[in-house]
UniProtKB/TrEMBL annotation:
Gene3D superfamilies: 2.60.40.790. Belongs to the very long-chain fatty acids dehydratase HACD family. Belongs to the p23/wos2 family. This is Very-long-chain (3R)-3-hydroxyacyl-CoA dehydratase. It is found in: Endoplasmic reticulum membrane. Catalyzes the third of the four reactions of the long-chain fatty acids elongation cycle. This endoplasmic reticulum-bound enzymatic process, allows the addition of two carbons to the chain of long- and very long-chain fatty acids/VLCFAs per cycle. This enzyme catalyzes the dehydration of the 3-hydroxyacyl-CoA intermediate into trans-2,3-enoyl-CoA, within each cycle of fatty acid elongation. Thereby, it participates to the production of VLCFAs of different chain lengths that are involved in multiple biological processes as precursors of membrane lipids and lipid mediators. InterPro entries: CS_dom (IPR007052), HSP20-like_chaperone (IPR008978), Tyr_Pase-like_PTPLA (IPR007482). It is a multi-pass membrane protein. One of its GO terms (biological process) is fatty acid elongation. It catalyses: a very-long-chain (3R)-3-hydroxyacyl-CoA = a very-long-chain (2E)-enoyl-CoA + H2O. One of its GO terms (cellular component) is endoplasmic reticulum membrane.
Length: 366
């Protein structure tokens, strides 16, 4: 077979079978010699080098049952279904680690089919991640990251940098100027805080489209609550921007995120950092109530301002025949929405803490 080109051959496996898909169309005069550990193939057809005679030979990693192995020829390809002697996943197809350049991995066929229609088909990506990773590296020469992981890494890194900037600027100004720096908190980091807060709306979309695990309600409540405070209560009322409570609120929000985003990054790459995990599911215990307390103070302080300016209020008569009184809404928000949402978020984090840490994890960290 010297001098005869080889066609592209795509292989995949289940626990019981190996499939070989020979990329030849209009195949004629196929000659197949199958042995327990070797396959010799030659045929005339249209392949990578046009209409030509093609051939190849493969020495397998393990043995096949030749009596229960089959192949069929069609106008599009030649398909081999080779029955393994032992039900197991092979680390590679060939007997030697070096595989020929024309042998490719057919990842679209990497599904486990047990013949039972009621049993859900398994996916090598989830069931055998190490094997899949090694095969991908063997095929491509490197491990190709999926788009979801790369996107989430970039997003979490960007948010981490943003909140680190906010926390660092506020800390340096306070260290340099003392309590007098509090009145300039919004002026210094307000634009950055508004930008990263707008980006956090994407976290609701992540949960909605399955990019991250977990429900939609918790990130939705937290994101909308923060956006309401930041844009409607602080950004819309200049007199509130110089209050020390804004400094405290920004420091609390940033402290939470400086733990949360590194934890998310570690989970993307399955890195178990016990101290970081413990902080992620513990830091909220003091900071969530303090954050809601600051938000409540901001709303309470804003009520007389909005009574004076009637910002966001609508009085009759108007085109829509609709009346809305913002100060009354803020009172209702404080009484019936603000603290119930805090309770919901606290219970959500408490259940997550119990699932993630538990008694064993707590003792291990201690």
């Amino acid at each position: 077979m010297t001098g005869i080109p080889s066609p592209f051959v795509y292989w995949a496996q289940t626990e019981e079978f190996v499939t070989l898909r020979v990329a030849l169309t209009n195949t004629k005069d196929a000659d197949v010699s199958l042995h327990p550990t070797k396959l010799i193939f030659s045929a005339h057809g249209h392949g990578a080098r046009g209409v030509h005679n093609y051939s190849f030979s493969l020495d397998f990693n393990q043995s096949f049952n030749t009596e229960e192995s089959t192949f069929k020829t069609s106008d599009r390809e030649v398909l081999f279904t080779l029955k393994k002697f032992k039900k197991t996943w092979w680390p590679r197809l060939t007997a030697t680690p070096q595989k020929p350049a024309w042998l490719k991995i057919d990842f679209e066929r990497w599904k486990s089919e047990d013949g039972d229609e009621e049993e859900e088909a398994r996916d090598i990506v989830n069931d055998y991640p190490d094997l899949y990773k090694n095969l991908r590296k063997e095929e491509l020469g490197y491990v190709k990251e999926d788009f979801r992981k790369v996107y989430l890494l970039v997003y979490n890194l960007f948010q981490l940098v943003g909140f680190t900037f906010i926390f660092a600027v506020l800390s340096i100004q306070y260290y340099r100027d003392g309590p007098g720096a509090m009145v300039h908190a919004f002026e210094s980091v307000g634009p950055a805080m508004k930008f990263v807060q707008l980006l956090q709306i994407l976290e609701v979309m992540h949960a909605m489209f399955g990019y991250t695990k977990g429900g939609i309600m918790a990130p939705l409540f937290q994101t909308l609550g923060r956006a309401f405070i930041l844009f409607c209560m602080i950004d819309a009322e200049p007199r509130m921007q110089t209050k020390p409570v804004v400094f405290y609120l920004f420091m609390i929000w940033s402290s939470v995120e400086l733990i949360r985003y590194p934890y998310y990054i570690s989970q993307l790459y399955q890195l178990e950092i016990h101290g970081l995990t413990w902080l992620r599911y513990t830091i909220w215990i003091p900071l969530y109530p303090l954050g809601v307390l600051c938000e409540g103070v901001i709303i309470l302080r804003n009520i007389p301002y909005f009574e004076e300016t009637l910002r966001f209020s609508a009085t009759l008569p108007n085109t829509w025949n609709f009346a809305f009184h913002m100060p009354t809404f803020l009172k209702v928000y404080l009484a019936f929405f603000c603290f119930p949402v805090l309770y919901f978020l606290m219970m959500h984090m408490y259940r997550a803490r119990c699932r993630r840490l538990g008694i064993k994890s707590w003792k291990k960290f201690k």
